[in-house]
Structure formats: structure tokens, C-alpha cells
Amino acid sequence: MTPPQTLLFAANSPGEIAGWLRPLVREARRRWPATRLVVILLPCTFASGSEGRVALDLVGVDEVLPASRFLRLLAWEGDRFRGATLVHLGGDLMYSALLSWRWGLRAWSYLWGRWWWDRAFRGYFVKDPAGLTWLTRRRISAAKAHLVGDLVADAVQASLEESPPTPPPSGRRLSFLPGSRGHEVENLAPFFLEVAEGLAQGRPDLEFQMLLSPFLERELAEQALQAPPHPQVGGRQGRLQGDMLVSPSGVGVRIVREGNLSALAKSTLALTIPGTKTAEAACLGVPHLMLLPLNRPELLPFVGLLGLLDWLPGGNRLKGRILLTMKKNVGFLAQPNLLAGEAVVRELVDVLTPARVVDEAARLLEDPQELARQASCLRSLYQPSLGTARRIFDRLEGPA
């Protein structure tokens, strides 16, 4: 296949930009140096608002089109992309399907498929055999599905090549990963600070760091880090002193704004919310405890009809009450657990207190055999996924 003049990527949420787009852009630049790379941001419940800035910062991206331009892109602006190749990474498949039909694109989708949009796509890329089963159950032909692996493994490897792991700590290091949205950090920074206070007692060798997402604007991040604890969430209000967030009792948590994966790589344990962060920690072999606090369930983004309640007056509170009733039937949320089909790492999905998280984290910290088991299992899960971007481009370069 002759390299296309333009390669389009449709995406929007932070996980797609950081975990999936980066390795694809890197491979595209290696194989097709003359191809123009364009990122189309789609409307998305999980968007942070900073995807455009972060996507444009990726080396090799030539243009980023915001979600606000989608209708113009569909109506007339997309004519300049007629016949281009498109890889859908996230957002509603409807948007990519409409663009594909409107402008005759060679469209592919990573992970997602629905039979009613199937004619718009040449094929689908999946992480694992469970992904193949998921597609075929949704009336997608198995002949159109291609097992390639998890792009996060390539993203982590690329990040470590650009920024090698930091020197190991003198003792043990615990990392907090509070999320990529302002309200997540505003609620979880005080919560995690109280967790740090609890774990610091009797553990002088334990140091703490909090990894901030590049999707979070610096000024907003500083405000969120020093926010008072919400009554429904709890915690301790901290104050920033240089690169340290300090609790009222003097416990310090180092704030990491760049080279997050390098800093995470030497962690003894990580506390993280769901999302791509769990897969990144797994690729690094870092044991972790996944937390989904349901203390303020109305703030949780959700897809489908339930997510549409956010657009109605008072609808987010109704959504929150419904989510609380669903907590026992939610299934696995941590990506390594989904990949393994079993609980490799512990998940806490509940109304949480800092004290409960301290107990759970302390139990892991005092069990080196369990930490070693997790680390070994996590690495083995994601090792086969190295080379996923290469396998995707091998397929894109196949017969038209």
C-alpha cells in the first residue's frame, strides 16, 4: 500500500491520548514520514478539556481539530481528507462512521465496534481474545477483527526511552495517582494526604509522591491540591511548599508534574483510580490498589443513557443514586484484572474513608511476597503487547 497523504486519528479522553495515540504517532512517523497526521477530537463524556493541547505537543502531530468543529468537518471541511485513512481510538463510533461514509475514508477502530456502524469500518483491532469475543457477540464478523495487543505497553516503553526511570528511593515509595480532571484532584488530594499521614506512622522509610496528569493546567492543579477536604470525602488540607504538598502534621508528598512514568517505575505500591493509569502501572510491574470512591457518585462520568442524566436539571444526583445501587454488580474495573479475567490487584469500589484505605495499603506494604507476586504477574500480562503499534501498521499497510 502507498502511504496515505493524511492519517486521521479520532480520539478524545485522556487515556486515549496518553496511552494509545502516542505510540501510533511514533510508528506513523517511522513508517510514513511524509504523511500528514491529524487528530480529530470527538465529543466525549470522559474528556478533560486539555486533550487538544496535549495531542498537539506529541512529536509528529501536524494538526488537532477540536470537537466544536465536528459538524463543519462533516458538512464541508472534511473534503480535504477524502479517501484518507482513519483510526478510531475512542468517543462514539457514530462520529467516525459518519465521517467515513461522508468522505470515503478507510476507517478502522481500536477495540470498539457496533453492527449498525459496521459497514463504515474496514476492520477492528483488539487487545486480547476477550476482545474478539466481545465483537463477535455484537454481530461483528470475526474475519474483520485482528488481535494486536494493548497500545499502552508501547506507550510506556516509549516514555521510558525518552525519560529513564528515576533513581530508586533509599527506602520504599508510595505513589498516588489522583486522575486527570480538576474535580478528581480537588477531592482526592486531601483524601490521599490523610492516607499519607496514616501510613507514615511507624514507617520512617516510606516516602510519598503524587503524579499529576499533563492534562491538568498548572494553575488549576495548584488550587485543587490545596483545596479543603469535601465533607463527603474527608482528608487533610495541604499547603504547597515548592514541589511538596505538606499536611498539617508535617507529612510531605512530592508533586511530580513531568516524567510521571519514570517516577512511577520505582514505586513499591501505587494507589490509583480506574483508567489507563492501572495499565501503565501494570506494564511497569508496579503493584497497585485501585480505588473508586463512591462518596460523590454524581461526579463520576458514565457512558450510555445513564450518562445523559448529567444534561438534565438534578439529573447528576439521580445518576449518583443509581450508581450506588450498581456497585456490587460492577465487575472488574482495573485494566490488568480485565485482561487477566481475575483479580490480580485489589479493587475498592465503595464509599471510602482514608482510614480504610490506610488499612488496605498497610496490609500490602507489610506483605512483600504479595507485592512480588503482583509485580511478576503484571509484567507477564503486558509483555506480549509490546509491538502493538507495529502490528496495527502492518495491517494498515495491507491490501486496500
Could you walk me through the main structural features you see in this protein, from its secondary elements to its overall organization?
The protein contains 15 helices and 15 strands. The radius of gyration is 21 Å and the shape is globular. An eight-stranded mixed beta sheet has the order 10-11-12-9-8-13-14-15, with helices on both faces. Strands 3-2-1-4-5-6-7 form a seven-stranded parallel beta sheet, with helices on both faces. It is 39% helix and 17% strand. It is of the alpha/beta class and 400 residues long.
- Low-pLDDT parts are none
Q: What portion of residues is helical?
A: 25-40%
Rg (CA only): 21 Å
CATH evolutionary superfamily of the largest domain: Glycogen Phosphorylase B
Look up the CATH topology of the largest domain: Rossmann fold
Question: Structural class, from secondary structure content?
Answer: alpha/beta
How many domains? The number is 2
Overall form = globular
Overall mean pLDDT stands at 89
- Strand proportion: 15-25%
The CATH architecture of the largest domain can be named as 3-Layer(aba) Sandwich
SSE arrangement, N to C: EHEHEHEHEEHEHEHEHEEEHEHEHHEHHH
Number of strands: 15
Order of strands, widest sheet: 10-11-12-9-8-13-14-15
